[in-house]
Amino acid sequence: MRLKPSLIYFCQDSIHYSFYGGVTIGSVLDQIYEGTISINTIPMISICQKDGKWFTADNRRLWIFQQVIFYFVSDT
């Protein structure tokens, strides 16, 4: 199933700034912007539905996907 990142909710009210291993979510976003890595190299997130809303526990990856859409994808 594919959903727009904007339709998926975080399961926590905050996220940690780095992944396991110490790579920060900001540096991953920078690398995507610079073309060093592709968004397609980021594993897809798992989602579940509760009360008609979609949630994920993969909060850091969801944040990256949302930022990519917000900053790098044109509305045109």
Overall description:
With 76 residues, the chain is an alpha+beta fold. Helix content is 32%, strand content 13%. Helix 1 packs parallel to helix 2. The model has no long low-confidence stretch (mean pLDDT 92).
Describe the secondary-structure layout.
Layout: E1 8-10, H1 25-34, E2 48-50, E3 53-56, H2 59-72
Parallel strand pairs: 1-3
Antiparallel strand pairs: 2-3
Helix pairs in contact: 1-2
Which labels suit this protein?
alpha+beta, 76 residues, 3 strands
Q: Brief description of this entry?
A:
This protein is of the alpha+beta class.
Strand order of the largest sheet: 1-3-2
In terms of structural class, how would the helical and strand content be classed?
A: alpha+beta
Biggest sheet character: 3 strands, mixed
Number of helices: 2
How many beta-strand elements?
Answer: 3
End-to-end separation in angstroms reads 24 Å
- Give the overall pLDDT as a whole number: 92
Helicity range: 25-40%
